[in-house]
Specification:
Radius of gyration: 17 Å
Oligomer: single chain
Distance between the termini: 39 Å
Helix content: 25-40%
Length: 236
């Protein structure tokens, strides 16, 4: 990975969430800056921000024109977010003033920033730097890992001791998905990820990949249903 980790190294590595079993929890894949597509999918599941929980797998921003609007919505409803590689590029470009990160980001969907105010951009960066790279979720008797992506071998109980060492495996790595290769995903029952475009959601070992955004619309999963599907997989 050529993008430096100067800014993102200050972000928290992981947070633990305990959510009541009777709450509905939804996880959404990469949004690529499209607010309307998110709302269309949330409407389908009758998402209620007063009662339900929403977790984003990162890559909220870029490509579409609604990056700031999406972040404002997540802030408003108290959504939980893990960082993606696009948030990483943005932070290094703007907070570290890294010229390579700026070029890479602009070429890969970040050109919207050229028409945004400095105040808006700084506000987004300040919020992103407070978001973790990963979430460990306790819900309905299961331990569930949440991160933008996942390497072939990972332990949620013995992560590297600092954020910087986890940026490549949790924000950029594609080997698990491209090679359909699963060695270890230890310390959780299963995990959920975006980052790798797929026409249909799919399991690789005990990791679930839901980044369908490039094929029409982002996927919003009801985590209770995913737990049921995981149980079925392990019964067969």
């Amino acid at each position: 990975m050529n993008v430096k980790t100067t800014a993102i190294s200050k972000a928290p590595l992981c947070k633990t969430l305990d959510i009541a079993d009777d709450q509905r929890v939804f996880v959404v894949g990469d949004l690529d800056g499209d607010y309307q597509k998110l709302q269309a999918q949330l409407n389908k599941v009758r998402f209620n921000p007063q009662d339900d929980v929403l977790i984003s797998l990162g890559d909220i921003i870029d490509r579409g024109q609604d990056s700031a609007e999406l972040v404002e919505y997540f802030q408003e409803i108290g959504a939980h977010v893990v960082l993606g590689n696009h948030e990483h590029m943005m932070m290094e470009a703007l907070m570290s003033r890294d010229s390579f990160a700026m070029r890479l980001w602009t070429q890969n969907g970040g050109a919207w920033h050229q028409s945004a105010s400095v105040q808006t951009l700084l506000s987004l960066c300040r919020w992103f730097i407070k978001q973790p790279l990963a979430i460990k979720l306790n819900y309905q008797g299961h331990k569930i890992g949440i991160s933008h992506t996942l390497p072939v071998t990972w332990s949620w109980e013995n992560m590297p001791g600092n954020t910087e060492a986890c940026v490549w495996p949790l924000l950029w790595d594609r080997e698990r998905f491209l090679k359909r290769k699963h060695n270890v995903n230890h310390g959780v029952d299963f995990s959920v990820h975006g980052h790798n475009s797929t026409q249909v959601c799919l399991w690789i070992g005990n990791s679930y990949h839901i980044d369908t955004g490039r094929y029409g619309h982002p996927t919003v999963i009801n985590l209770s249903d995913t737990i049921d599907a995981f149980k079925q997989l392990n019964l067969n």
